[in-house]
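As a warm-up, study this chain.
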Amino acid sequence: MQLGELKIFSGRSNPALANSICDFIGTSLGAATVTKFPDGETFVKIEENIRGKDVFILQSTSPPANDHLMEMLIMIDAARRSSAQRITAVLPFYGYSRQDRKDQPRVPITAKLVANLLVTAGANRVLTMDLHAQQIQGFFDIPVDHLYASPIFYDYLHQFRHEDLVVISPDVGGMKMAAAYANMLGSGLGFVAKKRTDATTVEASNLVGDVEGKEVLILDDITETAGTLVAAAELVRAHGAAKVRAAVTHGVLNDLAYERLKDGPIDELITTNTIPVESRGLPVTVLSVANLLGQAILRINSHESITSLFTIKGF
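Now compare it with the structure written out below.
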């Protein structure tokens, strides 16, 4: 099937990233009005003809997550009712992804609920990055293109590649990702055993791996309060680590996170612009995912494979 002209629209969660993607592709951001009624309800109007177009709607469900999720759903509905040929929901950060299973009685599986909402609203395809759990792709009955930030991180991290580098996972669940980075960087590998005492506090109890006199890279997919990162950093410091960096795809940093980073043992936090991130005078490095998402959008529009986007310097 021949697809129509590519059109990109954005909600209000990350317009800077949307514009950067459009600059890479060589197109202009679609005209749309996204605002609120006096009672707080979201209003959307697509300000140009998209009949028969291949529409991509970019929106991360970053704070305020509920407002941004509703904006995305309403924009998808508006595009569907405007006779778009195909609608791809581009979520650089997929919110509610940590609620992906019933880990205690009488709780929802909200990651699945969000998937249902996107499909019901009219999304034909989803493009996202570094899901908290890869099985979330199976919550959809439409195609899901799942990108990884690892090629972007590698381009930055290879400068630190040496024999004294150790990659640490801040919990057992992240060992697979940490092992992949350790293989790419030719470094040592370890992990921290943690216990979460409440939603904002983590206790790091045990370390597996040798970090004495080493430079440590802590890897995670998302941080909000920086509790897990700081607890892991404090533990590796106590075991003699010489320098500590952290690389996190989605830096959903709140005020508590900035306080912990200000006084904490992390020398540099490396993250991406899947959501807007402020440095606030702290050693925060923000890498852009615009080119990677732009390439994926172009390939989806032209029916090309996106597998090559996963290749990292021959790995």
